[in-house]
Amino acid sequence: MSPRGAIMRPGPSPRLLTACVALAAPLVALAPLLPWQAALSAFCTNLHSRPSATNSARKRRDGTLRHFIRDSSSSSSSITRLIQGVQTRRVHPAHASSTAVAARADATSVEVDWRSAKQTDPQHRWDFWQALPIAPYDRRVTMRQEAIPGEMWTFEQKQGILYIHVPIRMTVYRMTSRRGLFVYAPVAPTDECIGLLRELEEQYGEVAHIVLPTVAVEHKVFVGPFARACPKAEVWVCPGQFSVPLQLPLEFLGFPSGRLHILENSGVGGKVALPEEWQREGIDFRILGPIGKDVANGAFAEVVLYLRRLRTMLVTDLVVSVNAEPPPIIAEDPRTLVFHARDGPLSDIDATPQALIRGWRRIALFALFFQSSAIEAQTVNEAFRDALQSKAKDLGWGGLLPWNFRDQWEASFDSLRGGRNGPGGLLVAPILSELILNRFLRSDVWPFVEDVASSWSDMERVVPAHFEAPVRAGANDWRDAFRRRFGEPPGSRGFLQDLFGVPPGPEPLVADLEYLRNVSSFLTAAGVIDPPEKL
Length: 535
What we know:
Structural class: alpha/beta
Number of helices: 20
Low-confidence stretches: 1-78, 83-111
Strand order of the largest sheet: 1-2-3-4-5-6-7
Mean pLDDT: 80
Shape: globular
Helix content: 25-40%
Strand content: 5-15%
């Protein structure tokens, strides 16, 4: 079967707020991609095709961190191990009076380099960061991990704003019906990233397929340059692509025209139109959306993929599993962890392993809720007053930390793990659940959720593009995550549901959803989004 789909055609410009809401996912709603920036990225990419990784990028660097960056199969279960893997910088005695010796990380006096921002190594440089000017800007360290030995790998970078950094993940699958690799949700194609990919290509064949599974800009911005680094790959994109404030063809945003295809439903019984090579490989997919008030010019959509041979589902933003401890890609530069480890703007700096765990858990709360019940916000006058007296000005932002954490803040994080010391598990992303998904439960969300659960009932693991992965989860775990968030699907209530209810698991506190629900009410009143459904 030949590839299906045609290039999306330009349409009238949507309202900017509609576009932002349609992109609402952790950290995305705050940074819509401007077409002129994407066009600049595409123009620069055409002028300067990215060279293959240099030999120096492939050589083992000094320090133990290289173990994590190149090919790590170790988990993040021990923050001490991660910190020992971070390259450190000893403060010269001549500067001790002005900068203080870096804090101890553990009893062995390992020092955490938190006072100075990491310098950008050429192999980590992302030249087109201006297309989406968010942290870490031009410095994109890549960590490759072997998720399933010899079968599937994840490539992790980090992304965020205002020191709210979370992992962003690309998944690479080894095809067996032919030599080649299958890439889901590309990340920034730095020299290091492409060098690590070339190592897999040498063993298993070149990249054959690239999938952009979402309309979210923090994934979309990398696809054009990444596709140029893989010139023989077919590029498949989620339907509903758009740009703001002007609708532009995907080619103008840097996508290769000769090998670009739109994934779509066949329109027959809700089935999808599988490319022939995907059928031979046992790769299946389902599409949620496009959904939104204006589906032509600013909708939400996501493609979830199923690798039947591995019993593994790949998702982008719909569900996450929150790490209990800092992921290695975040611990690599611990400044953001130290920044958020403080209880308030006047707190002492603490860079112990326990503090870094605390910092990560607070980052997770900000990334998922923007603002939660865990903090007590300061007034503008209080914030600037305390910033002048801050002991943490070396961390950046002039010492500004405009909130204090409440004594019981940990209850908010514990709820994301299914309780105190909970095992974790799948959680529907709160920003999506409160601003988008709850508007389309009957028409789109529940039919999609049930289709995934019934079609891939042998599922054993899920790999989200953010936070923890891979996650041990089956079809019932997937379905239960939506049941906890939205209640029972329409028409499914019965004696057993009433008797047993929804199995316990990760679910936000009601108080932590208040801010997002206030935003929802505001946007609904303004006519930007539809009112939530009531099942």
